[in-house]
Amino acid sequence: MDVTTEAPSKAGLEDVVAASSSICYLDGARGVLAYRGYDIHDLADHATFEEVCFLLWHARLPTRAELGDLHSQLADARALPEGVLRLMRSLPPAPAMDALRTLVSALSHYDPGANDMSPEGRQRTSVRLTAQLGSIVSTYGRMAAGGGQIAPDPALGQAANFLYMLTGQRPSALAARALDIALILHADHEFNASTFVARVSAATLTDVHSAIVGGIGALKGPLHGGANADVMHLLLELGQDVTDQKIESVVRGKLARKEKIPGFGHRVYRTEDPRATHLRAMSEELGRSTGNLRWFQISQRIEQIVKGEKKLNANVDFYSATTYYALGIPVDLFTPVFAVSRISGWTAHVLEQYANNRLIRPRADYIGPSYPQAYVPLDRR
Ligand SMILES: CC(C)(COP(=O)(O)OP(=O)(O)OC[C@H]1O[C@@H](n2cnc3c(N)ncnc32)[C@H](O)[C@@H]1OP(=O)(O)O)[C@@H](O)C(=O)NCCC(=O)NCCS
After folding, report:
1. Which of 26, 147, 309, 370 is close enough to 142 for a disulfide, judged by CB 3.0 to 4.6 Å?
2. How far is the CA of 181 from the centre of ligand 1 (A)?
3. Closest alpha carbon to 181 in 173, 169, 189, 191
4. Per residue in 108-142, pLDDT tens?
5. Torsional class of 356: left (φ above 0), alpha (ψ -120 to 50), beta (otherwise)
6. C-alpha count within 13 angstroms, C-beta hemisphere, residue 23
7. Average pLDDT of 244-251?
8. b/e 72-81 (16+ beta carbons within 10 angstroms → b)
9. 365 CA distance to ligand 1 centroid (A)?
10. How far is C-alpha 368 from the geometric centre of its chain's CA atoms?
């Protein structure tokens, strides 16, 4: 064999540094997450999702005028092309994440700038996709529930407009801000699986839509974004009237059978996921505002058991489930809502990759049959 390979990397590329990036700072030992140096707690307390998008794309916070411009660009791009709406209506019933993957791919056919690979063209596509993903997910969710399509409201920000297009009602300030914070918390997370997929695609110099479609496919998986819906399925299976003993026996039973409890554990954090801290508080606040704290209480009980038994912390997906549920978002849309936020981080990473590109092409540690094998003709096998 003429190829020598290096010692195999750790399974799942754990702790492998794959490239340099100036977008997201993640310290798993101290539980720190920062976008472009700004701590996630400060951003969640003070910023809006649109400010965070600008920060991720441009490496600095926007001025008031720049933020106003971005609001207008997003509002202008929210209406979906008629061809995409037609396709949406014609799809057989499918999980919303599958529909999102297909419809984002379809968007490129109606975007004359989809293959404009100039820096300006790629930036424009990033803004358009950020606006359009929210419209796709809210409209698909509304249609799946038998409702009619609602035109976007340019006066509303991304979070409030999403809830408006989904429900047909202008959301309360508390609901709009809760979703806004959830979008901020989910916006970026360094080289998570879906972002890495998007970067690997972008490194071939393919177009932005193609890179994002790959990311959506990766996010769907239950080990990644799919976990938030699985958390809610677990809660719904337990039911609101579940007793403490029943929660104990179900959760301990799963752990004894080595089943994963969705919403716990993380490849990087060894402390609590800093995003979970906000989402826990938000889930409780929304529960109080709707007069139903039961889902929050059941979640807390599960958290105590998993923490006590396995020393595993809740991750971003655990309390986002009850947060979205309290906001009236259907469970099938939970993972797509993650994408509605993560599109900002995916595009920031794709833009960073294009700006300083080299094809990403690692090697494999070959462990197959020895070389050379003698070829056996078909009639002698
Ligand atoms: C996030 C995740 C994929 C990280 O995976 P990883 O770094 O490869 O860690 P592993 O899956 O190898 O888990 C390490 C150990 O912790 C256990 N573990 C990890 N997450 C667990 C969970 N959610 N429930 C129960 N046990 C879990 C594993 O079973 C394994 O135990 P073992 O050493 O006794 O075999 C994993 O924690 C997981 O599957 N979590 C549930 C899905 C989820 O919430 N995903 C969203 C992540 S933001």
Report:
1. 147
2. 26
3. 173
4. 999 999 999 999 999 999 999 999 999 999 999 99
5. beta
6. 27
7. 97
8. ebbbebbebe
9. 25
10. 35
Q: What is the CATH number of domain 22-175+188-221+335-355?
A: 1.10.580.10
Domain with CATH 1.10.230.10 in the chain: 227-326
Output the residue whose Cα is nearest ligand 1's atom 9.
267
Q: pLDDT band at 223, cuts 50/70/90?
A: very high
Q: How many residues does the chain have?
A: 381
Which residue's CA is minimally distant from atom 45 of ligand 1?
223
- Under 8 Å CB-to-CB from 51, ≥6 apart: which residues? 43, 61, 62, 67
Q: What is the largest CA-CA distance in the chain?
A: 76
Sole residue written with tokens 């998993």: 306
227-326: in CATH 1.10.230.10: yes
